[in-house]
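User: What would this chain look like folded?
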Amino acid sequence: MKQEMMEIVNQVELAPRIFEMTLRGDLTQEMVTPGQFIHIRVPREDLLLRRPISLAEVNHDDKTCKVIYRVEGDGTKAFSESQVGDKLDCLGPLGNGFDIEMVEKDDVVYVIGGGIGVPPLYELGRRLKEKGATIYFLNGFASKDVMYYEEEFSALGQLHIATDDGSYGVKGHVGMLIDEVKPVTGEPKAIFACGAPGLLRAVETTFIDHPHVYLSMEERMACGVGACYACVCQSKKDPKVNKKVCDEGPIFKAGEVII
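Assistant: Here's the prediction, encoded as structure tokens.
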């Protein structure tokens, strides 16, 4: 983990209130595990807490990384108003990242995401593609208007999309995509998911006895390094035991914590 003032080299609005920001700095050389995040200080003196944002893509050759975020409040609004050439105080990489050691060439894997939980799955997909895996991306969005990265995911594997309002792809939730794909592929070697608690619970329930199901939690964080206990969740084995999402997660194996 390091701290660095990273330079903004590009920023585009992918969909209403959803931005892709490209940052450049030596910190990227530390970013080796998909699913990790960086903790970015808001460039306003009155907003003290950093914002955790997952890494959507890392390019070690040109020392850049991409983060995708949705404007939800004053902090992310300040990010969206930052300009190319500005520098942001970044801390990271943080979190444990996805375990892909067990995936081998031609293994079928599911990569499942919803809404603003989709970004970290792109870098994960790139790494799985490098291993020669056969990837099925199952992405869910509220509507066509807030979709993004359709071409990018399609270049890595077979992309299936569901929208809540039926404006694109299958009408409904991501669980319906699982029902659609599973009879075709059979049991996948591994399942990786990131999104809202409802999506993660659906994945966990569907693959309840599967040995390789990895779920990335989204929680509000304060320190981001495991010191303040603001982002704890309960262990499923012993609810009296807490797990810190920022430090011990954000990725947990299915059945490890209560979602």
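Helices lie at 74-81, 119-130, 150-154, 174-185, 197-206, 245-248. If you want, I can go into more detail on any region.
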